[in-house]
Design a protein that fits this description.
The two termini are 12 Å apart. Strand 22 and strand 23 form a beta hairpin. By secondary structure, the chain is mostly beta strands. The strands form 8 sheets. Strands 12-9-14-19-16-17 form a 6-stranded mixed sheet, with no helix packed on it. A 5-stranded mixed sheet has the order 13-21-20-15-18, with no helix packed on it. The protein has a 4-stranded mixed sheet with strand order 2-1-4-6, with no helix packed on it. It folds into 3 domains: 159 residues, Immunoglobulin-like (Sandwich); 212 residues, Sandwich (Immunoglobulin-like), CATH 2.60.40.420; 116 residues, Cupredoxins -  blue copper proteins (Immunoglobulin-like). The chain has 4 helices and 31 strands.
Length: 511
Amino acid sequence: MNSLTRRQFLSLTGGAGAAVALGACGASPTAPGAIGPQASVVAAVDARRYRNGLTKALALTAAPLTVDLAGRQVPTWAYATELATPEIRVTKGTELAVTLRNALPEPTTVHWHGIAIRNNADGVPGLTQKAVKPGAEYLYRFDTPNPGTYFFHPHVGLQLDRGLYAPLVIEDPNEAGGDVDQVIVLDDWLDGINGQTPDKALAALKASGGMMNRGSDSQSSGMNAMGGMSDSSAPTNAAGTAMSSMTSGALGGDAGDIAYPMYLLNGRPPADRPTINAAVGAKVRLRVINAGSDTAFRVAVEGHRLTVTHTDGWPVQPVTVDSFIIGMGERYDVELVARSGAWPLYAQAEGKTGHASAVLRTNDTSATSPRDVPPGGLGGQLLAYSALQPTEPARLAPRQPDRAYTVTLDGSMSGYRWSLGGDADRLDPRQGQRVRITLANRTMMWHPIHLHGHTFALPGYGGTRKDTVNILPGRQVAIDIDTDNPGQWMLHCHNVYHQGTGMMTTFSYRT
C-alpha cells in the first residue's frame, strides 16, 4: 500500500511494547505516495487559511517543577510555575510562533489539540517532526483560523499524565461573549504522590492485567459515593493508587483503569478550591477542558442550570441541562446566569471515588464558602450527544462519502494491550474527499477517540462537529471527515494508557 501503516507507525514510534517512547524516532517517515508534512500541497493549503495579520510570539519551557497541592509538595513536570498554565489566548486568525524549550530529562513535543493546523506543527514525533531533545528548542509556527476552546500537551509517552498541559483559547471578535469568561481545566493526578509516576502506573497495569484498581472497598464508586476519598485514607494497591470498583452506567460499564488519589481543577485539589467571581445576574461562560488521562468528569454547578453552546470548539444550538459528562480530550463551553450567593462547581470523577471543585461567588455576598458537596444537578438532566445540534455555519455540507472505512477498537486486559483493527491500516484518503469512518468498540471499556488536524461530523447525532468522541462498550459511532488538511495525522484513544499500549493509527493522505 502507498501510505504509512499502523504497523509501520508503531514500529517507528516505539509502539505498544515500549509505551510509545517516541523520543528516539527519526523525522517524518512516510511511505511512497503518502503526503508528508513538508509537501508543497501542505504549504499551499496552509497559505489559504484565514489570517488577521497579527503574530503572537512566546516561549514555552517544559521543565521539572515542584507544585503545591493544598500544602503537599509534589514533584512533576510542567510548562510554568503553576499547573494548567500558561493560558494562551488569541484572536481568530492570529499567527502563533511558540518556541518550545526542553528542560526535561527526556525528549518531548507539543501537540495543539483540536486545531486544524499545518501538518508540520502537529507535534507527533516520528510522524510530523523529530522529538525535541533535552536542552534543545523547536519553533511551532501556525495560524489559528477556527475560534474555540482548545489545549496543548506533549505527544511523547505518558507525559500528558504529569503537569504538561495548558489551555489555548481562540476568540471570535464577532461572537457575543459573557460578562465572565473562565477556563476550567480538569485533571486526574497521581504524579509524585507516594513516589508514583505514570510509567510506574502503566507497569503495574501490565503486571496485573489491568486489575490494579479493581477493589471492593466499602466506598463504592459512582453516584453513591460522591463525597470523595483522600489519598491518605483510601485503600491502596502495590502501585500506590486508591482502589475502587470504578463502574459507570453512563459510560457503559468500566469507568477507567486507574483510581487516582487526587483530582484537580485549574491545578488545585478540592482542599484548595479556586474561586470564580461574578456580579449577580452576570452571564458566565465556562470553557471546560478535560486534560485527564483516564477519567471522565460529570460537571454541575449547584443552584444553576447549564446552557451548552459549544463542543470541541464548534458552536451548537443552545441546549440547557443540569450536568454533562466530559471525556478525556473533549471540551464544552457552557453558560449560566450567576445567582446571588456562593455555589460549588463540582466535577465528579465519573464512576470513581473523588472529585475536583471550585466556588462560583457573586459580588453581593459575604457568605462563607459553600460546603464541598455534590450538587443536586449531578443527578438531574444529563447532556446526551443526541441533544446536540450544530449551528448552520458549523454544519458540513450534505454529501455522500467518497470512501468508507470501519475501524475496530480492540483490547485485552491480559498483559494490558489495546489496539485499533479493521481498516486501521488502510486509512489512506486523498485530498478533497468526504470520508466516513465507523468506529466499532469491541472492548468492555469506553474510549474517547481523537483525530488530529481535523474536526468531524457525527451523522448519527445531527451532524454535530467534534474532534473527540466517546464510544461506549459494544457501540459504534460514524464520523464524517472532509479531507481538506493534507498530511500525516494520528487517530487514537485519548486515554493515554490505551494510546501508550497501541490504540492508535495514522490517517495518511496519499497522492
